[in-house]
């Protein structure tokens, strides 16, 4: 959405903070696909994707997502797996799941229409204060703030705010200031201008104060202490855990199971495995485990007991350990090690832990390959079909290892 001429005429000669910011925004803002639309759904998609992800990464995902799911109806009637598959590679999959839940809520409760008001937007699953503020102000011109990490940083410098920015008190304080600064005309432009300032000028590590349009309104700058802000709480160290992974292979097929709907990588598919925290003392001793210990770990990883017989045999013969490769989440690092267990190709389904072949029941669609069987959140799937499955990027090295063999 463009900064309108109305607003530029309105602020001509005005040296207030918002006028300076909006004049700069009109001249310097980047052309981004979501800035040419006033469609609340498209704005929602862009805002969710932009959380914790860079603009250049988001653009192709945004365009593809809108091609496949151009509106609330298409998103809400798609399967979760379809949505997660399109999201694959963008990370933080819970964002996609929550947006999908939000679309279903809108279809069920609101006739497939996006609410036009901030408070009502907050009732939609997956829409928090920031996203509600962005949609309400940009699409519906409501005067509300949209406060994300970028905005917290910029405002903390503008106000030389000497408290940690992540607290509720800081949020309330910033919100009050933003509402006071926000113009009546085009409040969404003001919010976007502040975000753009944070992205292009008032960046996290090297704010370019010399080219900043609002230096005269910036307390941090005027006090010569920009480097002090934002004040942050002490960071929690990332927990490192070993993720022991069992790759069960049957010719071209590999065994996957779906992760629980809560927690890390919720609802995605995985090669089964267990997390071993360093306190359990197993990290460096994996190669020394007895057959019985291997078997116990396998039982923790795979609730399906029909595979036990074959696994016992395999552990008895010894299995080479592959890896490690590392994968980093926001609060955790996985050190991924894996073993590959080969099963005879012609075992009966029953022995493979698949007691009956069931159609995906509308929740999961693979391509036309007949190789896969999907039952109760478990499946055997051909290696060449893995690209069509929401399998976390964390397992990329394992897939490459399998393809190379
Ligand atoms: S003057 Fe510097 S610290 Fe202040 S808003 Fe501009 S870039 Fe950020």
Shape: elongated
Biggest sheet: strands, sense, closure? 8 strands, mixed
DSSP, total strands: 8
Query: Assembly type of the shown chains?
Result: single chain
Ligands, deduplicated: iron/sulfur cluster
Number of domains: 2
Describe the model.
Strands 1, 2, 3, 4, 5, 6, 7 and 8 form an 8-stranded mixed beta sheet that branches. With 405 residues, the protein is of the alpha+beta class. The protein starts with a helix and ends with a helix. It contains 16 helices and 8 strands. Helices cover 40% and strands 13% of the residues. The chain folds into 2 domains: 224 residues, Hypothetical protein, domain 2 (Endonuclease III, domain 1, Orthogonal Bundle), CATH 1.10.340; 166 residues, Nucleoside Triphosphate Pyrophosphohydrolase (Alpha-Beta Complex), CATH 3.90.79. About 7% of the residues have low confidence. The site of iron/sulfur cluster has 14 residues, from helix 10 and helix 13.
């Amino acid at each position: 959405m463009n900064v309108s001429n109305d607003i530029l005429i309105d602020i001509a000669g005005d040296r207030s903070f918002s006028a300076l910011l909006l004049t700069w925004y009109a001249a310097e803002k980047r052309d981004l696909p979501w800035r040419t639309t006033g469609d609340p759904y498209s704005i929602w998609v862009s805002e969710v994707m932009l959380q914790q992800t860079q603009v250049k990464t988001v653009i192709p995902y945004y365009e593809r997502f809108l091609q496949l799911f151009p509106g609330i109806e298409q998103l809400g009637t798609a399967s979760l797996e379809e949505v997660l598959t399109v999201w694959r590679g963008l990370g933080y999959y819970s964002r996609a799941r929550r947006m999908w839940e939000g679309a279903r809520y809108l279809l069920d409760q609101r006739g497939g229409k996006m609410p036009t008001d901030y408070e009502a937007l907050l009732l939609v699953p997956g829409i928090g204060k920031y996203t509600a503020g962005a949609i309400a102000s940009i699409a519906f011109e409501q005067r509300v703030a949209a406060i994300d990490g970028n905005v917290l940083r910029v405002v903390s410098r503008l106000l030389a705010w000497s408290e940690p920015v992540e607290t509720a008190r800081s949020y309330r304080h910033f919100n009050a200031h933003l509402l006071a600064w926000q113009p009546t005309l085009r409040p969404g432009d003001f919010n976007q201008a502040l975000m753009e300032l944070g992205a292009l000028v008032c960046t996290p590590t090297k704010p370019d104060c010399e080219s900043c349009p609002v230096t005269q309104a910036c307390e941090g700058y005027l006090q010569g202490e920009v480097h002090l802000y934002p004040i942050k709480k002490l960071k929690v160290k990332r927990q490192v855990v070993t993720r022991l992974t069992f790759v069960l292979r049957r010719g071209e097929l590999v065994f996957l199971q779906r992760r629980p709907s809560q927690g890390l990588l919720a609802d995605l598919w995985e090669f089964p495995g267990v997390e071993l925290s360093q306190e359990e003392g197993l990290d460096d001793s994996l190669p020394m485990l007895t057959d019985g210990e291997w078997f116990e770990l396998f039982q923790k990883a795979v609730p399906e007991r029909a595979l036990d017989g074959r696994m016992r045999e395999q552990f008895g013969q010894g299995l080479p350990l592959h890896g490690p490769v590392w994968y980093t989440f926001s609060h955790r690092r996985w050190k991924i090690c894996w073993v590959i267990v080969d099963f005879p190709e012609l075992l009966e389904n029953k022995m493979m832990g698949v007691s009956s072949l069931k159609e995906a029941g509308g929740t999961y669609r693979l391509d036309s390959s007949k190789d896969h069987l999907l039952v109760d959140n478990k499946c055997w799937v051909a290696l060449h079909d893995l690209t069509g499955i929401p399998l976390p990027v964390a397992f990329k090295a394992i897939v490459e290892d399998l393809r190379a063999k």
